[in-house]
Q: What sequence folds into this?
């Protein structure tokens, strides 16, 4: 297999004509001007082999996911994607990996109008670090700190499915193949909720994207907003797509997953890349309109309360404390 030089590699796979940026790949810096009245929203996320993905993952999907998890942060702030940089450590410069990786990455970039404007390339254990730049009208970014007692708590899309796929890969549970495929797609190809984030500007009082588990990430909103919440656990578990998929066919047959596991994965599964946000009850019609405009399902899963702490409430109205922990790289 022929390997490529560093500059040949950049030229072939990552150099593209600048569009929105004043200057893209090829000089010492890229140049990017925010439009008048806009603030730049900036976020970085790193994906490390063995930590965030398995060595066997399809490079097309890895390229997609590396950018998707970064776009998810822009979505959570209500920012419109503009551009990104790519810092890449690669064990080998091989076309058979680079070509599909670049394809997955740039297909999502093009779909979201987010251009690759620079980066760095080095040899080393596979490590992908992306920094995204977005724009949001000054003062309108959705923050973790804006939740108020009495606000509704909402969740976009589905949760828990990525964790199901991970557990199947680990061999701790088994599910029918069609259910696994659905869950695996959620793990390997998350959909960043950019359109919903944009539609929620001026409507949501706070927002965060869920990467480390629903309750753990909710904890960040509660802390930074100095409030508490109650979460409807039945509403949350109803948003595990894989569970719903075959519960509708033959109630939970053909799986070794227990009800407690479905619940745990919905509440603390991780790798979901959905939005969790709050809005005043007076905004219910506006939230519904934002959901429809962005073609993204939104479910009301709880309420923000003045009393600090997190309370779990089930369908029978039974309240219990939160005993789930969120993912922590150093715990
Ligand atoms: P320098 O040594 O001045 O930092 P490099 O030689 O590392 O510059 O990079 C040359 C150009 O290629 C720069 O514009 C840089 O942003 C770009 N670049 C390097 N690696 C990547 C990459 N993986 N993706 C996109 N652009 C890259
Ligand atoms: Mg360099």
A:
């Amino acid at each position: 297999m022929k390997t490529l030089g560093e500059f040949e590699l950049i030229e072939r796979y990552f150099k593209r004509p600048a569009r929105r940026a004043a200057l893209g790949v090829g000089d010492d810096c890229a140049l990017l001007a925010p439009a008048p009245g806009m603030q730049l929203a900036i976020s970085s996320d790193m994906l490390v082999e063995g930590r965030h993905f398995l060595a066997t993952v399809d490079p097309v999907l890895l390229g997609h996911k590396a950018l998707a998890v970064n776009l998810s942060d822009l979505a959570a702030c209500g920012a419109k994607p503009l551009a990104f940089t790519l810092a890449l450590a690669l064990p080998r410069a091989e076309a058979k990996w680079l070509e599909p990786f670049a394809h997955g990455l740039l297909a999502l970039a093009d779909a979201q109008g987010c251009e690759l404007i620079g980066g760095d390339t080095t040899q080393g254990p596979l490590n992908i670090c992306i920094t995204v730049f977005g724009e949001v009208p000054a003062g309108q970014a959705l923050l973790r700190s804006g939740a108020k007692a009495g606000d509704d708590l909402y969740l976009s899309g589905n949760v828990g499915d990525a964790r199901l796929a991970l557990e199947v890969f680990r061999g701790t549970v088994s599910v029918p193949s069609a259910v696994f495929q659905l869950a695996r797609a959620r793990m390997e190809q998350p959909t960043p909720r950019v359109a919903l984030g944009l539609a929620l500007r001026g409507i949501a009082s706070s927002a965060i994207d869920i990467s480390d588990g629903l309750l753990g990430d909710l904890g960040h909103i509660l802390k930074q907003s100095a409030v508490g919440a109650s979460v409807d656990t039945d509403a949350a578990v109803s948003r595990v797509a894989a569970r719903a998929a075959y519960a509708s066919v033959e109630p939970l047959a053909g799986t070794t997953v227990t009800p407690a596991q479905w619940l745990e994965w919905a509440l603390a599964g991780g790798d979901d890349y959905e939005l969790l946000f709050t809005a005043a009850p007076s905004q219910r019609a506006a939230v519904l309109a934002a959901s429809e405009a962005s073609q993204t399902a939104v479910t009301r899963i709880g309420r923000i309360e003045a009393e600090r702490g997190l309370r779990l409430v089930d369908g029978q109205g039974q309240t219990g404390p939160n005993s789930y922990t969120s993912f922590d790289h150093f715990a």
Notes: The chain has a mean pLDDT of 93.
